[in-house]
Design a protein that fits this description.
The chain has 231 residues and is an alpha/beta fold. It has 7 helices and 8 strands; from the N terminus they run ββαβαβαβαβαβααβ. The strands form 2 sheets. The protein has a 6-stranded parallel beta sheet, sandwiched between helices. It has a two-stranded parallel sheet with strand order 1-8. Strand 2, helix 1 and strand 3 form a beta-alpha-beta unit. Helix 1 packs parallel to helix 2 and helix 1 packs across helix 6. The C terminus is likely disordered.
């Protein structure tokens, strides 16, 4: 009886501008690269992402000229990320970008080999949604927020004793199996969210005994908050 007392309507992702490659992205011209979009915070596990990238290079899963691109504003983990890059001697291969435009970020999604999102916790997971909308392959941690958001559209990596090896295996499998571009996830669009809101409001307004009837509580609408993504 209580199952129908609440409905979840997810937040949505959208691109306002077409993809554009600018001078900021010149280092990526004609290169393969993997992408992470995240603020420099502990839950994003960006030092782990750097170590995974190093293993992909040493294992020749990615070519030596490949790059890793991290898009996100600096934060509490910036020093640890930079130290990890120095220790791995990847200063010229891991590019830290902040302040990219929506058009530049969309180009990154559309041209990367994959989006890597090894977060330990998330609220919504906007970069995963944006990557899927752009048709990118996504390899991410197996956490409830990503499962709820993306369903079977991502390559999920459970936490393991050796997370680096687990991510390397998943990325290797994803690069072999991924189609040129993934299917378009309509449920993550603004139009889909609008349709669900309209349907819900229509059901509320037309249902007898709903609304202001003191004997029956109206359905609760819960909209998942979007993660705050710095660019």
């Amino acid at each position: 009886a209580h199952a129908n007392k609440a409905q979840v309507i997810h937040n949505f992702a959208e691109f306002r501008d077409p993809a554009v490659m600018t001078g900021n992205l010149e280092p990526l011209k004609d290169r393969r690269f993997i992408l992470s979009v995240a603020q420099h915070r502990l839950n994003k596990n960006l030092p782990l992402a750097v170590r995974v990238f190093e293993r992909l290079l040493t294992g020749k899963i990615l070519p030596a000229e490949a790059r890793m691109v991290v898009v996100g504003i600096p934060g509490p983990e910036t020093r640890n990320i930079e130290e990890e890059i120095r220790n791995a001697r990847l200063g010229h291969k891991v590019l830290l970008f902040s302040g990219l435009s929506d058009a530049e970020l969309r180009w990154c999604y559309q041209n990367c080999d994959l989006l890597l999102a090894p977060s330990s916790t998330e609220g919504f997971g906007a970069p995963v949604a944006e990557a899927l909308l752009a048709g990118a392959c996504v390899v991410c941690s197996d956490i409830p927020a990503f499962r709820e958001l993306a369903g079977a559209a991502c390559h999920y990596v459970p936490w393991a004793d050796d997370p680096i090896a687990a991510y390397v295996r998943a990325i290797s499998d994803a690069l072999r199996a991924a189609p040129a571009r993934a299917s378009y996830p309509h449920h993550l669009t603004a139009a889909a969210a609008g349709e669900r809101f309209a349907t819900l409001y229509g059901e509320l307004s037309c249902s007898p005994g709903r609304g202001f009837d003191r004997q029956c509580r109206p359905l609760r609408t819960v909209q998942r908050p979007a993660s705050i993504r710095g660019k």
